[in-house]
Amino acid sequence: MKIPIDVSADRAEPMYHQIEEQLRALILSGQLAEGVLLPSIREFAADLSCSVITIRRVYQDLEQEGFLRTRQGMGTFVAKVAASDRERYRRDAVYYALKAAVEVGRRINCTADEIRSMLEELLTDYGEEGGSGNGNRD
Amino acid sequence: MKIPIDVSADRAEPMYHQIEEQLRALILSGQLAEGVLLPSIREFAADLSCSVITIRRVYQDLEQEGFLRTRQGMGTFVAKVAASDRERYRRDAVYYALKAAVEVGRRINCTADEIRSMLEELLTDYGEEGGSGNGNRD
Amino acid sequence: MKIPIDVSADRAEPMYHQIEEQLRALILSGQLAEGVLLPSIREFAADLSCSVITIRRVYQDLEQEGFLRTRQGMGTFVAKVAASDRERYRRDAVYYALKAAVEVGRRINCTADEIRSMLEELLTDYGEEGGSGNGNRD
Amino acid sequence: MKIPIDVSADRAEPMYHQIEEQLRALILSGQLAEGVLLPSIREFAADLSCSVITIRRVYQDLEQEGFLRTRQGMGTFVAKVAASDRERYRRDAVYYALKAAVEVGRRINCTADEIRSMLEELLTDYGEEGGSGNGNRD
DNA sequence: GTGGTCTAGACCACC
DNA sequence: GTGGTCTAGACCACG
């Protein structure tokens, strides 16, 4: 299975972080279903042009968080995620990001309407790239 | 002058970063006006319970960005900020934070309306703490 | 013959290890007597829902340890175990496990009495499941 | 501070595991109190004759478990452990080790008395090495 | 083939 | 000085 992940060594955020974040999102959004076999660490490392160690770390961290299950000699699989976790995550992830933005706005004395209009601007082309309907395969 | 800054060594973000960010916001929002004398490095370090080295770095970075002006033997002052910078900053800071939030939403298949309603929830008590009027005092 | 073995791929311990350990215990305790024919590799693998390779390894390891004897075309049998081995094993297996427990206790400053009382608690229902009489059937 | 840890690359258990286990025990037993600064990764690695990476992994794992707190540029410290965690750990660690031993005993038909007498034998010199009185500095 | 451990060493960020 | 990230590569364990 090809995993749609986009990382760059140029960003400030460490690569393993970027990968973890995106994999977590894929699992929690249901785009990577329970039981799916992920690429082997070597294969994935080649895909993303990074070291196998970086991928191993990703898999290890996510296993510890309960999102993956790896079995020696067999590979790494997507673990079962409680529906409640999925829901909570879905809400929290966006909520806290928005909250941070609002917080910044408050600090620099933005008006609420300024914030609203910026959001609308950002949402104009939102539906076109996959965020339209359901997508949540719960 | 007492600078209203809230930092914590417990957060993941490095302290110098937290301080710089908040000082920058205070200056760009006009809450720290041009010419204001900032605390001495030692005093500020004591206030924030951090190392003088950390404050030195903050002052140095912000001076390089043009927000501060240090004069030998006299101390560190808030520099003049161009109105255009202020405006650009005001817009960019919030805009990019919002953009990040929207990006997260797209990844996990949030609908645009879900995002809008979260924002409204966050904005309910927004005006009460200083975001009411017009923060551009230039 | 149906071999009463309980393994799970979910445990941290590798499967071949779990199986070997339990088979060894069955043989040394006399529950699998000399000359008993074990299931074929394929059959056993199916029973335990694991790979034939895993079973092959188990049989191989235990044959090397002298507990099994494989005869071409006839299958794998339980070998003769010296009474002394049986005795030594009986003692060692439990002894070293207890020793490890005591070692842990020492590290975290448990008192000897705390350890004793835990053991008693664990031994309350001990006799009911097979530990009653004399297990040495040599 | 010198940390009394005893590891060996010869054992089957991975070194990072051995170290983690012993550090965890030291913290949970109160022998390493909250706030204590641990050796730097390089120093500790030299002490234990292993790679800095192994130590970094140990520190990282234990931080994730909440036992350590590491701050870039400052070092790695013992975190606050809830008294309840300490108590639970104290009991569980020994209890499960004992349980495993009893389980082995049952499998090979040991009598309860055999197990008891082995334990007593192991406990004869128990008090002499620090497990006597309290030691729990809660 | 898979993942698990460990190595030596580089370079960066922080204090 | 501290820890944080990433590298390339070796060797072992597992299925």
Topology of helices and strands:
Four copies of one chain form a homotetramer.
Chain A: H1 15-28, H2 41-48, H3 52-64, E1 68-71, E2 75-78, H4 83-107, H5 112-123
Antiparallel strand pairs in A: 1-2
Helix pairs in contact in A: 1-3, 2-3
The first copy, chain A, binds a DNA duplex (15 and 15 nucleotides) through helix 3.
Order the strands across the largest sheet of chain A as they lie in space.
1-2
Could you give the distance between the termini of chain A?
20 Å
Query: Whole-number average pLDDT of chain A?
Result: 86
Along the chain, the helix and strand elements of chain A come as HHHEEHH
- Give the number of helices of chain A: 5
What is the global morphology of chain A? elongated
Number of DSSP-assigned strands of chain A? 2
**What fraction strand of chain A?**
5-15%
Structure explained in plain terms:
The structure is a homotetramer of 138-residue chains. With 138 residues, the first copy, chain A, is mostly helical. Chain A is 52% helix and 6% strand. Chain A has a two-stranded antiparallel sheet with strand order 1-2. In chain A, a hairpin with a 3-residue loop joins strand 1 and strand 2. In chain A, helix 1 crosses helix 3. The longest helix of chain A is centred in the last third of the chain and has 25 residues. Chain A is elongated and about 55 Å long. The C terminus of chain A is likely disordered. Chains A and B meet through helix 1, helix 4 and helix 5 of A and helix 1, helix 4 and helix 5 of B. Chain A binds a DNA duplex (15 and 15 nucleotides) through helix 3.
